[in-house]
């Protein structure tokens, strides 16, 4: 009988991904503690297992690299070679190659990597002869480009779809049939057997209780028949003792009602436990997103030339699988932010009296029915002066408004789209999109909140507070002008009644002074344009105070109807654009109740009471933005002009630095885009000359060049560039996004 490899491939992929995750984490830990024999043994065993499993399935390309990894780790374990940064880089390169090939197998694709140079380098390393430079890339996984989000699971690792059995694992491409798109596998999740045992036990109790309910129906039927007999006797005038019959019937009903109430109590207990156990089936540890960040932190810190220790705690804390999947992006952006903007260079830290090695910690814990995730760094902290400067430069607020903001409100400005305090936009940071993603994912998608605490020179912390699950949530049901709305209780900080006279006017807003704090107040029915019945305002107002991060707001409602755990249903596709509603739930009377999207409601309330922002927005929309594009390549500058003009910008072109200076002298440009290598005057010199001109001291300048070395980027910073785009990573969205971040959108 022929051996069917495809039958076992999915199991191999699942197991290999576990071992790859262990190797990633173990190799990072090995750099911290090279003498940790237990860790070294564990990663050696993982490499050995991948080698053996792939050999059984005749996945030769994977076997070869895993074998060479095992040899190098074996030599390290036996003390034949010392651990070094260069060896670690090579081991990670080999691991990336294995990971890429496993992904190829999972997708049913042929393996196209040429691993010969890598295998040779690993063999030399095992003999103590490390190559002077890493082998050239033979495919994905070998290119030493900027660290990306590799390892952050887009979804929780599950069993992979079984691909077609590969007959040639080293071929360049597969057949046309092998390359055809395959249907995605059904989502799966690993569940511990003790969780299944609990669920089966509960199912038995539910079935047993159902038999009791059948008996109650029979008892109720008996009473109904007795009542019908008494009615018939009364109608025929043959009832000898009507009062006695009524008393007997009442006693029976009373006794049955008491038993049904007891059954209802037991049913509530069983339902609550069943609900809890069922939800637990979908819970996975946050370590699934924590662990890959160790490797990412190591690579990013190395790329930035910084010495950083990254530690995690609380990885065993469990969250809903769907939430863990969406947590990867926010944590990735927070980590990049901490490493790039927070942690200083070793020299800067020593000058400030700090240890040369920075520290970033990520932890998870339970707190008051929620999950608290905190990312903390001991870096420079967030400069409110820089935040003010950037907000003024981007015309987000006027100087008077910024001066009136407290520190918390100023720091929260970093969550605005396109906002960044970085003085330079590069391929790693400064685009102002990371923190916007954090807020959108955490607040809108995960129904959580983000809070920032920062101290100048001591570091910053970001606290993310999340509900345990989004499937069932604790909902506060309120009525406003006769309409019923749901509010998730994790947004609610307190509920109070206040006299109408306690609501005061503060700069065209309604507010409530609560414990020396002014809290904006809005009428929920008016804000939502509720068209329910008119009603007379009571002397006492019922106010629900909600909080998102550092912002509070009071919603005036008519009454609180109930508070209970409810299943939240997503909005149908045609209603996805209704921002103020996050979902619907069904009441006991089978009524649909809108669950409010509290962050969106709060934002709507703020904009409704801040009309000063509208004229600025209109002015910005109507203003024509002039851009000067400088490049000696006709093709390049014409492409850049076409892209920018398509987005509504007015573009002037120049062939070199001297021509650019002449045109800049006659026209006030809002932004300059320049190449570096040009005749007569290069881009660095042009930038320096423009910065010396008072009219161009604050005008954004973007350098677009093929120079990708760190010293070139530093040179760009020194001469005053606002952004640095490498042509190798250039694409249309990259350029347009950078321009929009610096000067806003075009007039289109």
CATH class of the largest domain: Alpha Beta
Q: Describe the largest sheet.
A: 6 strands, mixed
How many domains make up the 3D coordinates? 5
Whole-number mean pLDDT? 77
Q: Features of this protein?
A:
about 45% helix; Four Helix Bundle (Hemerythrin (Met), subunit A); globular; six-stranded mixed beta sheet; five-stranded mixed beta sheet; Heat Shock Protein 90; about 750 residues; alpha/beta; 5 domains
Give a written overview of the molecule:
By secondary structure, the protein is α/β, with parallel strands linked by helices. It has five domains: 6-167, HPT domain (Four Helix Bundle (Hemerythrin (Met), subunit A), Up-down Bundle); 193-280; 290-467, 2-Layer Sandwich (Heat Shock Protein 90), CATH 3.30.565; 472-610, Beta Barrel (OB fold (Dihydrolipoamide Acetyltransferase, E2P)), CATH 2.40.50.180; 623-743, Rossmann fold, CATH 3.40.50. Helices cover 46% and strands 19% of the residues. The protein is built from 24 helices and 23 strands. The strands form five sheets. The chain has a six-stranded mixed β-sheet with strand order 10-14-15-13-12-11. Strands 2-4-5-7-6 form a five-stranded mixed β-sheet. Helix 2 runs antiparallel to helix 3, helix 7 (193-236) runs antiparallel to helix 8 and helix 10 (292-304) runs parallel beside helix 11. The longest helix has 44 residues, at 193-236. The relative contact order is 0.05.
